[in-house]
Amino acid sequence: MSQPTQTTTGETDERIREEWLEYDFEGDAALSVEDLDVFYGNDQALQSVSMDIPEKSVTALIGPSGCGKSTFLRCLNRMNDRISAARVEGSVEFNGEDIYGENVNLVELRKRIGMVFQSPNPFPKSIRENISYGPRKHGDIDTGLVARLLGRDDREEEEELVERCLRGAALWDEVSERLDDNALGLSGGQQQRLCIARALSVEPDVLLMDEPASALDPIATSKVEDLVEDLAEDYTVVIVTHNMQQAARISDQTAVFLTGGELVEYGDTEQIFENPRSQRVEDYITGKFG
Ligand SMILES: Nc1ncnc2c1ncn2[C@@H]1O[C@H](COP(=O)(O)OP(=O)(O)OP(=O)(O)O)[C@@H](O)[C@H]1O
């Protein structure tokens, strides 16, 4: 007897879920999420979310407002730890280790898994200092009078780092002549690319991006989109976006969350947008709700 392929019944959603849980992408998983539940006080924001995120690719998280996309993203480098009401259950493996395990060094974790926020938030410092701040804090770069006196001034390393990160964020050509200018004098789009350059400065493996282009005009948005695609050659990018065209344009995989914090479908972006298995996902993508 033939089974319906698309219906809204829980039973069929469960079958769809079992199908995409088998989702077989090329390459290795950078992050492996298993049965993740998140609560804010008594309210559950994510329900038993499981998914593997492939390395060196772009994974988009989409879904209507309040479905838990940002909550999920924050779980991937334990930013929810900073929210006192938040409680996380389940596991997130990174390089084979549960980031929620005991003895995890959060500073090191967030160095490996960096984050870029919705509104550009450069430090009110020079463009150069925005990039060198992290490596200096981690003791990877030492400059200034004392370092000079001690004979370990890393000025050259700093220059190389600043250029590499600004090139990596497609900003070098626009700012190379004014590295000592205050970063707050840059345009919004340039500030956001500077924040991406800053995230690159500590040599992360994964970049988490929470609607990084939503505060930008169309030209700046298109530059950030191009950049995200390029970054995926070297980094694992996970991006939350409200913009379905954006997800379709730049991501390799798409995960669709729906109301109640449920991950309803996950797969190749083309399959999700052109041939979703779930009726609820099709309704969302075609604008019937959300
Ligand atoms: N700090 C918090 N304290 C309490 N509840 C929260 C907190 N952050 C999020 N929530 C709740 O958790 C649910 C998921 O929110 P979240 O911001 O993750 O959704 P989202 O899909 O990213 O939404 P949006 O697209 O509007 O940004 C919502 O019901 C929200 O009200």
From TrEMBL:
Residues of the ABC transporter domain: 31-285
GO CC list: membrane
CDD domains: ABC_PstB_phosphate_transporter (cd03260)
InterPro entries for the chain: AAA+_ATPase, ABC_transporter-like_ATP-bd, ABC_transporter-like_CS, P-loop_NTPase, PstB-like
Biological process, per Gene Ontology: phosphate ion transmembrane transport
Top-rank lineage group of the source organism: Archaea
GO function terms (MF aspect): ATP binding; ATP hydrolysis activity; phosphate transmembrane transporter activity
Keyword terms: ATP-binding, Cell membrane, Membrane, Nucleotide-binding, Transport
Pfam families: ABC_tran (PF00005)
Entry-linked SUPFAM superfamilies: P-loop containing nucleoside triphosphate hydrolases
PROSITE patterns: ABC_TRANSPORTER_1, ABC_TRANSPORTER_2
NCBIfam families associated with the record: 3a0107s01c2
PANTHER family (UniProt xref): ABC TRANSPORTER I FAMILY MEMBER 17
Protein name: Phosphate ABC transporter ATP-binding protein
